[in-house]
Amino acid sequence: NELLQGTLMWQSKTQCKTFLGSIGISWTPRLACGYNKGKTTLCQGDWADALVYKNAVYGIFAVGASSGFCSSEAQPSGLADVTSVASWIKKVTGAKLDYE
Q1: How far apart are CA 26 and CA 96, in angstroms?
Q2: Could you list the residue range(s) of the whole structural domain that residue 48 is in?
Q3: Which Gene3D superfamilies does its entry note (predicted)?
Q4: Is the pTM above the cut of 0.85?
């Protein structure tokens, strides 16, 4: 498969909670949503791919609505919010954060 990239905007927790609730998913603080209205979003094969900004992983694709999947009509994509567990990852792996 050809490697592609796209641009998603991190949505507010309120927007994310509302969207996930509308597709029957209970929001937790460890979830986030990315979206770029009118642009193609998550496609088949993207599950578990990273949302990266400036070489740092912010999220892992976890869920998407079936309506408009992989099209410009697509809904936001649900992600596991890596930032919410960064301190745990650091503790378990000994990894350094960029700003350290």
Answers
A1: 31
A2: 9-93
A3: Trypsin-like serine proteases
A4: no
